[in-house]
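YM 10:42: Polymer-forming cytoskeletal protein sequence, as discussed on the call
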Amino acid sequence: MARGNRLQGELQVTGRLHVDGVLEGYVDSSDDLAVGRQGVVRGTVRARQVTVNGTLEGELHCDSLHIEKGGRVSARVYSDELIVDPQASFVGERRMQQRAELPPGSDTEADDDCLEGLDYQLIDTLPDRITLSRGEDD
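YM 10:58: structure's back
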């Protein structure tokens, strides 16, 4: 999508998508998404690998997110891998992707044992959000 163009709505893509314009809404890609320096993506995005040089805001579901120098992401991110380059910005929340199905024979009760003896008051003292950024002088 070229610079100067604006697209709003629901988009389903089977190949790679590069955005240098403004894209707002829901994007579902079976491949990779790249947000160029002039690109702005707002909404809910599902893609395999996402690279951001511009701006991404909203909610993102992907295998891998790479925020390159100058890139800005303000989103709730569900990703197995997150890379933030120096002079990039990430504001939001990142969680590992949820697996839709448990493998056959898995025992979910066994995971509850790891929570035994956990001090829940300690968890309540943790911040809701953490902002990682590197200034120009660093």
